[in-house]
Amino acid sequence: MVQLGQFGDLKTSDGLKNLNTYLEDKSYITGYQPSQSDVAVFELLKGAPSAEYIHCLRWFNHIKSYGDDKKKFPGEKPKLDAKPAAPAVAKKDDDDDIDLFGSDDEVDDEAERVKKERLAAYEAKKSKKEAIIAKSNIVLDVKPWDDETDMAQVEECVRSVQCDGLLWGASKLVPLAYGIKKLQITCVVEDDKVGTDFLEEEITKFEDLVQSVDIAAFNKI
């Protein structure tokens, strides 16, 4: 358990060294998410630690990045002193140290609450997670009958083929021979909804303009 005075005066090199050692294998002052405990320690620092205290600096920059959202961190903000508490001289029944984060019961309750919140968030995310949709990127070569075919009309006809799971992309004209050019056009399809057979059948229906359709490239996304 972290105690008040464990780090010492955080405005001194000794205090920073203690905090740096503490944060060596931790992301936050307590628990697994930012809390008001981080805010309390953050406010005790006079500014960003030097690169010498690399773990302190990492933690400081992380907490600083939240800006005013630090006020929304969970938990109750502990009341901290920059310097260690004076040694207790009271009778043995009195506590020797002031608990920075409350009693063991309070820590256990907080840990249990955080655990339940994280579990609830995980279950909610899991229940809402969408199934991965398999998609493919296809490049089609659409060949006309001759060099007198209106290729703009060919492209217009190809793009008129529409269905759920089909999205047409870029296109260009590629020279073949004897002045004939083919239309090379890209599309993205959802594999479960659109197949290459469907595309070929629909495009070759424009038989006055289209001689054939070939698959130039087929890549899974």
Could you explain how this protein is built, in words?
The protein is α+β, with helices and mostly antiparallel strands and 221 residues long. It folds into 2 domains: 13-128, no CATH class; 135-220, Alpha-Beta Plaits (2-Layer Sandwich). 33% of the residues lie in helices and 19% in strands. The protein contains 6 helices and 4 strands. Strands 2-3-1-4 form a 4-stranded antiparallel beta sheet, with helices on one face. Helix 1 crosses helix 3. The radius of gyration is 33 Å and the shape is elongated. Mean pLDDT is 83; it is low at 82-91.
List the defining traits of the structure above.
221 residues, single chain, 33% helix, 2 domains, alpha+beta
What's the short story on this structure?
This protein is of the alpha+beta class. It folds into 2 domains: 116 residues, no CATH class; 86 residues, Alpha-Beta Plaits, CATH 3.30.70.
Q: What's the rounded overall pLDDT mean?
A: 83
Strand content: 15-25%
**Could you list the spans in which at least 5 consecutive residues all have pLDDT below 50?**
82-91
Radius of gyration: 33 Å
Helical run tally:
6
Q: Strands of the biggest beta sheet: in what spatial order?
A: 2-3-1-4
Structural class: alpha+beta
Count of separate structural domains: 2
Spatial separation of the terminal alpha carbons: 50 Å
H and E string: HHHHEHEEHE
* Helix proportion range: 25-40%
Main sheet?
A: 4 strands, antiparallel
Number of strands: 4
The dominant shape is elongated
